[in-house]
Write a structure and sequence with these properties.
mainly alpha, single chain, 2 domains, 302 residues, GTPase activity, GTP-binding, 12 helices, Rossmann fold
Length: 302
């Protein structure tokens, strides 16, 4: 991922700049501050802490404030959104947490089989908290991962930069290689299906996009496969990677059948659609955090 370092730094800088100009309340909102105070007060009262993290970023989504509490409490790390993460990588993370003597499980909160009702005999009291970011803006890498996974508003960084970051992740991974058997992109098919929509699909959308039909998703996959596979440069090189990303954007404009507008407007619309497909798991499964070589210092809540 060294070739994507420039994009990561650019996104991190954008987040820090906005946080600086909009004051700390933009990043660390009053409701987050209130939640943090409540956690401080209630941790000594609980027998078990369930720390819910994002399976796509098992380390970057850690709640650092838990590190300051004594080991008298017990913690379980719950990696949510398993359906969007790379399963082999998550298995490695679960083994890592176990080696650190920390209980960890992977779940998909949208799957009812992963959710169990809390018993009432004996009484079990649950103290829930909202998602909380660190009080201070963190390093570029964590900022970038939080932004790409949707924990930070897209408008802070810009959809185009986030889409470029995702394309760098995709191009440097093996996910796109799975799409080589898909049929090639057919302009006629795209045009003939223009305007067709499914009301049921619209209700399930989490991000604003009109291009979630299966045939369009398959066109996106196959087109990205062809573009990366036929690229003659070295994608580990920063300049070559930037050139590849530009080519990927150009073909995505055609696949999404965007009307002719200003280049920035068209790129922004393509980026929004691409991010939607990534965040709903339709362009592969990714775990952005790499296992630390020496292991991070985990919270003493073990």
């Amino acid at each position: 991922m060294a070739a994507a370092e420039t994009l990561i730094q650019k996104i991190g800088k954008a987040v820090k700049e906005v946080a600086k100009t909009r004051s700390s309340e933009w990043w660390y909102t009053p409701h987050m501050a209130a939640a943090s105070r409540a956690i401080d007060e209630r941790i000594p009262l609980v027998d078990l802490v369930l720390e819910v993290r994002d399976a796509r970023i098992p380390l970057s989504s850690e709640y650092l404030q838990l590190r300051k509490f004594p080991s008298s409490s017990r913690r379980v790390i719950v990696l949510n959104k398993m359906d969007l993460a790379n399963r082999p990588r998550i298995k490695e993370w679960l083994r890592f947490f176990q080696e650190q003597k920390c209980m960890a499980f992977g779940v998909n909160s949208h799957n009812r089989e992963n959710i169990r009702e809390i018993a009432s005999h004996p009484n079990i009291y649950v103290l829930d908290t909202p998602g909380v970011l660190p009080p201070n803006v963190i390093d570029d890498g964590i900022c970038s991962k939080l932004a790409l996974t949707g924990a930070i508003k897209d408008s802070v960084v810009g959809e185009i930069q986030l889409a470029e970051y995702f394309l760098s992740v995709l191009s440097l991974s093996n996910e796109y290689k799975k799409w080589g058997t898909l049929p090639g992109f057919e302009t006629r098919q795209l045009l003939s299906n223009e305007g067709i929509s499914n009301p049921d699909n619209r209700q399930k959308r989490q991000y604003p996009t009109d291009h979630t039909q299966d045939f369009i998703v398959n066109n996106v996959r196959r087109t990205l496969f062809d573009t990366v596979s036929s690229f003659s440069g070295c994608i580990e090189n920063g300049k070559d990677l930037a050139r590849l990303i530009e080519q990927e954007f150009e073909v995505l404009l055609k696949v999404f059948h965007l009307p002719l507008e200003s280049e920035e407007s068209s790129y922004c619309r393509a980026a929004t659609k691409l991010l939607n497909l990534y965040r709903t798991g339709r362009l592969g499964h990714y775990t952005l955090d790499s296992l630390p070589s020496n292991g991070p210092a985990l919270s003493p809540l073990l």
